[in-house]
Amino acid sequence: MKVLLLGAPGAGKGTQAQFITQAFNIPQISTGDMLRAAIKAGTPLGLEAKKIMDEGGLVRDDIIIGMVQERIAQADCANGFLFDGFPRTLAQAQAMQDAGVLLDAVVEIDVPDETIVERMDGRRVHLASGRTYHIKHNPPKVDGKDDITGEDLIQRDDDKAETVKKRLNVYHEQTEVLIGFYGNLQGDNAPKYHKINGTQSVDAVKNDVLSALGK
Ligand code: AP5
Ligand code: ZN
């Protein structure tokens, strides 16, 4: 099963990703998480990516495409994977089509911009796993600590209101076009396209997403 989660920054992709990967036993491929790991490790990629991410821009297509090609060639991706935050430009989507990486389903999580800003403000993240919480809507069991490891939760550097606005603009300018790209693919190999109302509770979105995917 190869699934793409599509949606604006803060739409809830990371939150829903954990339910899909558990239900289908497939790995999550989050390019955002991979870049944050590179920053933490201080690699050359991390050094280059940090400035761009802090400003809310997109990292270069060729870097991202190479990183994902390498990741999906690994053994744990043999039975499929969940793309979270990739592809996010037409060039990235086209590169996957050209490489014969055909998706079974695209799940779009639809949330208006006004809701996004409030969500980002309350978001807390466990950096090592990518697990995501919200101080009001999806709080951890212990304040400031990850449910599973008990380690500290952090606020992402790009969750400042000003950067969130920039990321939303970038989404509308460069990523939203993928809704049409995947929605208009024709033929036997075309992915099934599902649009989900992402303004509901985390649980209600989860139910809609899993039932759209046949679980
Ligand atoms: P990335 O990490 O992919 O960030 P993003 O797409 O901006 O998405 P987010 O992770 O911010 O949001 P999300 O949809 O996962 O929402 P979440 O579940 O956390 O990318 C970061 C940066 O890396 C980019 O800006 C770019 O610079 C670079 N990058 C990454 N991929 C790239 C690529 N392919 N090409 C080029 N550059 C790339 O939820 C948000 C909050 O809301 C949480 O607090 C959560 O608890 C809460 N929440 C979730 N669902 C609900 C709900 N139903 N009700 C109430 N609250 C909810
Ligand atoms: Zn995310």
What are the SSEs and their pairings?
Blueprint: E1 2-6, H1 13-24, E2 28-30, H2 31-41, H3 44-54, H4 61-72, E3 81-84, H5 90-98, E4 105-110, H6 113-121, E5 123-125, E6 132-134, H7 161-175, H8 177-183, E7 192-197, H9 202-212
Parallel strand pairs: 1-3, 1-4, 2-3, 4-7
Antiparallel strand pairs: 5-6
Bound molecules: BIS(adenosine)-5'-pentaphosphate (AP5) and zinc ion.
Describe this structure in words.
- The chain has 215 residues and is α/β, with parallel strands linked by helices.
- The protein has nine helices and seven strands, in the order E-H-E-H-H-H-E-H-E-H-E-E-H-H-E-H.
- It has a single domain, classed as Rossmann fold.
- It has a five-stranded parallel beta sheet with strand order 2-3-1-4-7, with helices on both faces.
- Strand 5 and strand 6 form a beta hairpin.
- It is globular.
- The model has no long low-confidence stretch (mean pLDDT 96).
- One of its GO terms (cellular component) is cytoplasm.
- Its EC number is 2.7.4.3.
- Its main location: cytoplasm.
Low-pLDDT regions: none
CA(first)-CA(last) distance:
12 Å
What would you give as the CATH superfamily?
A: P-loop containing nucleotide triphosphate hydrolases
Separate helix tally: 9
